[in-house]
Amino acid sequence: MGYEYIGITVLWLFLYGYLIVASIDFGAGFFAYYAKITKKDHIINQLISRYLSPVWEVTNVFFVFFFVGIVGFFPDSAYYYGQALLIPGSIAIVLLAIRGSFYAFENYGFKNNHLYMFLYGATGLLIPASLSTTLTISEGGFIEETANGVTLLYGELFTSPYSWSVVFLAIVSVLYISSMFLTYYANRANDHSALALVRKYALFWSSPTIIASMTTFIALSQHNPEHFQKAIDLWWMFGLSVAFFMIALFLVYVGKYYGWAFIAVMFQFFFAFFGYGASHLPYILQPYITISSGVTNETMAITLITVFIAGLLLLVPSLILLMRLFLFDAEYVKGKK
Amino acid sequence: MFFEDSVMMSRLLTSLTLIFHVIFATVGVGIPIMISIAEFIGIKKNDRHLQLLARRWTRGMTVTIAVGVVTGTAIGLQLSLLWPNFMRLAGNVIALPLFMEVFAFFFEAIFLGIYLYTWDRFKKPIYHWFLSIPIIIGSTLSAFFITTVNSFMNTPRGFEMDGGNVTNINPLEAMFNPATPTKVFHVVASAYLTSAAILATIAAIIILFRKGSEYHTKALKLTVTATFIFAIMTAIAGDLSAKFLAEHQPEKLAAGEWHFETEVGADLILFGSLNEENEVENAIRIPKALSFLAYGDFNAEVEGLNETPADEQPPLWIHYMFDLMVSIGFYMLGISALYLLFWKVKKWNEENKWLLWAIAAGGPLSMLAIEFGWIFAEEGRQPWILRGIMTVAEGATTSDHVGLMFILFIGLYTVLGAGCLVVLRKMFKDHPAEAEFESRYPEAAATKEVDE
Q1: TM segments (chain B) (predicted)?
Q2: Residue in chain A lying closest to B421 (CA)
Q3: pTM for the complete prediction?
């Protein structure tokens, strides 16, 4: 296996990590706001804020890791994606900036301010929508390269069924992953009223998730038949994903083993995400960048992989420490610390 | 019009983001060390005031860190969005420190989260203090890594150009290029200095307007002492930086000093103006001082700007940026030394009104010096984005909509800046230090009253 495969696997793992932790965060922001306008905030907002307070910055770093890493491993992607994504990228920055800073403002200065809560909730849905544009254009057909540089074809993007199905999938997945996690977390905290509420959210958002996945597949077969065919060849990965979805849904439905249910959710997205990623190869951006044409020089690749391993050895213990102190410390979760 | 000029607008948008981000980056690097010092002395001397000081600074820092994180994310993405050609080339050589910067930040963020929520969770307070060490390491390493990237833009090393392609790459040589040592030292020392000065400003203003208490007097003593030490460090770093420029980037020094002809025993020109023939007028001249600044020798030869081809010369207005930065640096050194003198001489009152005002001005002035310094550093590299290899015009995006994005980001930074000020004000105004001291340490507050 060439180092370009190691590089893309590592990056994809980070993006997967971001997908999970950011979805929890984005969805939680939406649920917190939704609970406020439906006057149920007293039931769940304490729970949400106890989870979010210590981890919000860590979430953002997963994302930064991914885009710094992809420019490092595949410098060509800076050229093509950089030029094409000026507007969607800038909008995503603005939304991320508003979300991150207003979270801190609300949390440390203005508790339960309505405007802040609204911004926090709204950006939670808009950010996944704007970031998912990147995955859409990677399928090809939305970018034009001329002598003057690279331009994004907005007309194509806004009229493409594939593009909208990806946006829809991104939003419902966020709500699904987040409500599944909150169900587990509420159960862990022995908070029965919160559990009843978030469990209802989780069950509600499960069917749109599976419908959106199917719609995206159909739209992909129209937009990029070649990629669709490669995805079909990897049918077992998507099959496993659906199987884990059923397990998660079943466990939450019967109201048992919420921890295992969330792990099943993680596997569901792991197989779907890696199935998608593997069938996308060799392209990073169709038809301009493949992992072998766009990869950096060997020296840099090896150095980056080395540093990456060294960094993980440092970070994983620190992350475990953070999680033991907050996420999985039963006393802390219950609000006694 | 320049609004449609994507190169010009890319430069303006990058400056806008950096000018805003550097405020938060600077305090993000410097305040952790101040917090750590306050907590350590507070624990060792069993001084509740200093422990409270550390707590309150940390709380304020969480807000500035948040803005620093989101604007840092912005500049990280804008590097690719606005300078795609540059990143395509430079990514091959300098990706390593960019990547490691994220690790350093990740490390810092994890421990900041732990530090923030564990004040009372340890039996021995010193264990909590230990958690401040990885925060300092993480934040200072972030500054180190990102500064090496900027150094690389000034003195690119560690690769060869073969037509349009880069070959023979050595990532470590690129990272440890000639500009790295002095630039990192200068950036880190000045960030420490500015953070101490800003905290001193806060203490001085409260003493001036609200009389203050023992708590604020202790805060002032600690912060001004730190300002003095960091000002000396910064002065040394600045001197070394000038010597680096003389050797490796003479056109930047020459433009900054309005030094046109190569000569021995070159004069140092302070402020002044240029007439139509590019002759210096109204300036203060210090004989032979530029030679001394550049080489530590009053008779050394200093290369003039005329040695550089006209189309590769930086703009001349950066002279003012350099002079303002240096003047503020010396002001900080002087004013903190004066305070220490007044403090040590028993008969003099170090909290007299004039001195407090002078200290209060120090924080904003230091931050301005950081901005002037960066403007000098970046404009002084023009027309290059990668000195000698790629110009900013070659590096920029060709997208048409940069002007529009510029307006969008002005809006964003206005909202973030205003929000940050409002929240910080509310956080501390609603909870004055004295009230928090009494509620947090009732026993210490009670004995105090008996003593008095």
Answers
A1: 12-41, 62-83, 95-117, 129-153, 184-207, 219-238, 317-342, 354-377, 402-424
A2: A105
A3: 0.88
- Using a CB-CB distance cutoff of 8 angstroms, which residues of chain B are in contact with residue A153? none
- Please, is B11 exposed, middle or buried when counting C-beta atoms within 10 Å of its C-beta (0-12, 13-18, 19+)? buried
- State the best of B10, B17, B67, B70 to mutate against chain A, taking most chain A CBs within 10 Å: B70
What is the C-alpha to C-alpha distance for residues B292 and B296, in angstroms, rounded to an integer?
Answer: 4
How far apart are the C-alpha atoms of B14 and B132, rounded to whole Å? Answer: 32
Domain count within chain A? 1
Domain span holding position A251: 5-333
Q: How far apart are the first and last CA of chain B?
A: 70
In a domain, B253, yes or no: yes
Q: How many domains, chain B?
A: 1
Residues A313-328, mean pLDDT to the nearest whole number = 76
Give the residue ranges of chain B where pLDDT is below 50. Answer: 449-452
Structure tokens at A163: 């593009």
Residue B276 resides in a domain: no
Residues B190 and B30: their CA atoms lie apart, in Å, by: 9
pLDDT per position as a tens digit, B391-423? 988 888 888 888 888 999 999 999 999 989 988
Q: pLDDT digit string (tens) for A197-249?
A: 888 888 888 888 888 888 888 888 888 888 888 888 888 888 888 898 888 88
DSSP B310: G
CA–CA gap between residue B184 and residue B144 (Å, rounded): 6
* Domain coverage including residue B399: 2-262+303-451
Question: Which residues, numbered 405 to 444 in chain B, qualify as contacts with chain A under a Cβ-Cβ cut-off of 8 Å?
Answer: 405, 408-409, 412, 415-416, 419-420, 422-424, 426-427
Residue type, position A102, single letter: F
User: Roughly what angle, to the nearest 10 degrees, separates helices B318-344 and B250-257?
Assistant: 80
Cα B302 from Cα B288, distance rounded (Å) = 10
